[in-house]
Amino acid sequence: MPRKKTSRTINHRQKERINAIRQRRSDRIVARQEEGLDFLKDATLGKPEEGLVIAHFGLNVEVENSEGKSCRCAVRETAGIEPVCGDRVIWQKANSEQGVITAVIDRHSILQRPGPYRRLKTIAANIDQIFIITTSGHLNTGLIDRYLVAAEAAKIQPILLINKMDLAQNSDELMEQMIPYKEMGYPILPISATSNLGIAELSNMLTDKISIFVGQSGVGKSSLARKWIPQEDAPAIGAVKENSNMGRHTTTVARLYHLQNGGSLIDSPGIREFGLHNISRENVATFFRDIAPYLEGCRFSNCSHSHEPGCMVLSAIKDGKIHINRLKSLHRIQESMPKNNR
Ligand SMILES: Nc1nc2c(ncn2[C@@H]2O[C@H](COP(=O)(O)OP(=O)(O)OP(=O)(O)O)[C@@H](O)[C@H]2O)c(=O)[nH]1
Ligand SMILES: [Mg+2]
Ligand SMILES: [Zn+2]
Q1: What is the per-residue pLDDT across 34-91, written as a single tens digit (0 to 9) for each?
Q2: Mutation pick for ligand 1 pocket among 162, 237, 273 (CB with most ligand atoms within 8 Å)
Q3: How much distance in Å is there from the Cα of 79 to the middle of ligand 2?
Q4: Which residues lie with the beta carbon below 6 Å from any ligand 1 atom?
Q5: Residues at Cβ < 5 Å from ligand 3 ion
């Protein structure tokens, strides 16, 4: 049945209503920011100094100075962008416990995901490597593929960790599923926070780098992080739900920890979905390491790699050079993206 055409243009009244909502929202944000800066009114500010953002919750940003002491800071509007975990900032002390951030120093990398109001939310900055964690009981390759696209797009080195190997029924079968990722050159490490399998190797990988642990709630991010963090600072861990094996969103904000052997680690809250809203439907395939080299060869420039003659991706699959699951994953990601996503 032919679908009824709907007009995508909005009329003047709708535009006005949208603008009014936007204005109210931005007034609220400014009011909240000024409220957060109340303590500055009578304060004599200290000299500007450099600091490191170790956590961000609500209006407060926890900043650590060069001596490792932390201070709760508000953010001056002039800072321009919201500081996140891993950011290096310029800040000034207002009193013994509070300060204000005036600038965010240029970042060398950022990891983002979609936030409220279709805006991109930056999760962390200046990260050297992203550890994508899944478990032996739920090898979520769909989520791995999404995170890999995000890491490739952000030019951050990804490493795949399979935790809870102590519970694996058939570890050979599990590792077989990871072969395409190994062939693409991604480091893969089977580990267990419980039995300590692979923990020494993971420890070496973390040393002297800024890393982030990402993955669904309950995969064991905080349990692993605790291996390198002094007990008094260690993040809480939560039990998984018995029926689904999923976690309970125990970690609620990303936090940066200094590791005992050198380097820093950001433990992040588990997320249900990881969208790729800054990437377009058309170019998402370029971030699939195994598929990307074949894209130029397809006969049609808008090839969907599903049925077209002269499709180099399909022939690479036939020749065993790309795993079919990866193409399925690409199509699933594309289907989940809006058509005009740019
Ligand atoms: N058997 C087994 N259980 C583990 C392992 N690692 C973590 N767990 C358990 O998994 C549950 C969830 O662990 P957390 O470390 O809180 O998971 P998380 O990824 O930080 O979860 P969120 O903070 O909710 O995102 C806890 O009951 C841990 O004891 C492991 O290697 N083996
Ligand atoms: Mg946690
Ligand atoms: Zn093709």
Answers
A1: 556 676 666 788 899 999 999 988 778 999 998 989 999 999 888 888 899 999 999 9
A2: 237
A3: 30
A4: 163-164, 166-167, 192-194, 217-223, 237-240, 247-251, 269-270
A5: 298, 303, 305, 311, 313
pTM for this prediction: 0.82
CATH numbers and ranges of domains, the chain: 39-104 (2.40.50.140), 110-267 (3.40.50.300), 284-335 (1.10.40.50)
Task: State the SS3 of the chain.
Answer: CCCCCCCCCCCHHHHHHHHHHHHHHHHHHHHHHHHHCHHHCCCCCCCCEEEEEEEEECCEEEEECCCCCEEEEEECHHHCCCCCECCEEEEEECCCCEEEEEEECCCCCEEEEECHHHCEEEEEECCCEEEEEEECCECCHHHHHHHHHHHHHHCCEEEEEEECHHHCCCHHHHHHHCHHHHHCCCCEEECCCCCCCCHHHHHHHHCCCEEEEECCCCCCHHHHHHHHCCHHHCCCCCCCCCCCCCCCCCCCCCEEEECCCCCEEEECCCCCCCCCCCCCCCCHHHHCCCCHHHHCCCCCCCCCCCCCCCCHHHHHHHCCCCCHHHHHHHHHHHHCCCCCCC
